[in-house]
From TrEMBL:
This is EF-P 5-aminopentanol modification-associated protein YfmF. It comes from the Bacteria. Pfam families: Peptidase_M16_C (PF05193). SUPFAM superfamilies: LuxS/MPP-like metallohydrolase. Residues 185-358 form the Peptidase M16 C-terminal domain.
Length: 426
């Protein structure tokens, strides 16, 4: 596994993270912009990158903007909006080939960073606000994205479980915002939201490729105009929470298959020493095809079409998702709770332990084959304040004992049971 480390720096309000390496033929660039999740900002902030990708001040027409990417030897440009902990994060990504492999008459890293800086700080505008036709078109795009979640009942049940579980916390909000907020957004209001976002967000810029921190510093100073002295740090979410009583929510829709989701508070975060044991807990419970939920709920009892878990280490939440026959709600709930009890008892076979450690190790090794995955892994340190290399995490996972997993299991509490079913009686 690569021992290379990111080098750190700062230009104005942007934290810089540069990994000088000749392993890849491309430069991989990621810009993260994060704000605390909040009801009044979540929808406009989600809409901003959709509008920014349409054009810049120098290439206001979308076709011309895309042609400028073609001029960079078909550079890739994309974005994502998601949440980690209680933060809403917009991530812009660019991939451009290293100049050494093409006969370019322009330095491609410099040109790419200049383009990204313009996307961020000089969007296509008219009469002092973001272009109306882009705002209107992208409101429709965002609306369709949110509606597609409602139509995908597996995703919908997962989101609704978190919404109910965290109903008094920012984490209840979907990172793409709320359908009911979209209509009220105008070009003028979105421009004000954009300017506030630019002024308040935490910015982290990553570059992986055959470059140096000093070179990136010089290029970023020229390409980005995000003034201010100090980058803002991410607020750590409250992870420890005592569950007073387990809530059961039953929602009825036109579905033929029941969706049974459960939310667990694991009371452990990425920054904690027992995070590697929490990774093992998630893996043995439901993270892999050899896990307890998959084998006992799906294979042996034939109660579920699918059964798995997902861990958000930044929020300290583990979710169980399963698809069941509607009539099997009580039986499936009981057998899942038996697996939670089994985790508390510390009874894990050597096969469960070894296979889970091998699966996590394989995943961490595979990260090293992708510059973008290496960037995403390192960003965990920015979010949590806890720096770990993939190598260190792998070694920590390898040394986790059954008792350490049981300790995590015993402080894990079932918080919410969410069941999506049909509208029939019974």
């Amino acid at each position: 596994m690569s021992k290379s480390r990111f080098e750190r720096g700062q230009i104005d309000r942007i934290r810089l993270h540069v990994l000088p390496t000749q392993r890849f033929k491309t430069f991989s660039i990621s810009l993260y912009a994060g704000l605390p999740l909040a009801e009044e900002t979540v929808t406009p902030v989600a809409l901003i990158p959709f509008v920014l990708r349409r054009g810049t001040a120098s290439t206001p027409e979308t076709i011309a903007f895309r042609e400028s990417l073609d001029d960079l030897y078909g550079a890739g440009f994309g974005f994502d909006v998601y949440k980690r902990g209680d933060a809403q994060i917009v991530q812009f990504r660019m991939d451009v080939i290293n100049d050494r492999f093409v006969s370019s008459n322009q330095p491609l890293l410099s040109s790419s960073l200049r383009l990204l800086g313009e996307v961020l700080t000089s969007p296509a505008s008219e009469n002092g606000h973001l272009r109306t036709k882009y705002v209107d078109a992208e409101k429709d795009t965002l609306r369709k994205r949110l509606e597609s979640i409602i139509n995908d009942k597996i995703r919908y049940a997962g989101e609704r479980c978190l919404e109910e579980m965290c109903k008094d916390e920012p984490y209840r909000l979907h990172p793409l915002g709320r359908l009911e907020d979209i209509d009220a957004i105008t070009p003028q209001s979105l421009t004000a939201s954009y300017q506030k976002w630019l002024a308040d967000a935490s910015f982290d810029l990553y570059v992986v490729g055959d470059t140096s921190l000093d070179e990136v510093k010089t290029l970023v100073a020229e390409a980005f105009r995000i003034k201010g002295n100090k980058p803002s740090a991410y607020m750590l979410p409250a992870v420890k929470k005592n569950v007073k009583e387990v809530r059961t929510i039953v929602e009825k829709m036109d579905v033929s298959q029941g969706k049974l989701n459960m939310g667990l508070r694991i009371n452990t975060s990425y920054a904690d020493d027992d995070y590697p044991a929490a990774l093992m807990y998630n893996g043995i419970l439901g993270g892999y095809p050899h896990s307890k939920l998959f084998l006992n709920v799906r294979e042996k009892a034939s109660l579920a079409y699918y059964a798995s878990t997902r861990l958000d280490g930044h929020k300290g939440i583990c979710t169980i998702q399963s698809g069941i026959e509607i009539a099997n709600f009580e039986r499936a709930t009981a057998i899942i709770e038996q697996q939670l009890e089994s985790m508390r008892s510390g009874s894990y076979s050597d096969l469960e332990m070894n296979q889970t450690k091998a699966m996590i190790a394989n995943h961490l090794r595979e990260l090293q084959d992708s510059a973008n995955e290496m960037i995403a892994f390192d960003f965990n340190a920015v979010l949590s304040g806890r720096e770990r290399t993939a190598q260190q995490l792998m070694e920590q996972v390898q040394s986790v004992t059954a008792e350490q997993i049981a300790t995590v299991a015993r402080k894990t509490e079932l918080d919410t049971i969410y069941f999506l079913r049909d509208g029939k009686e019974g």
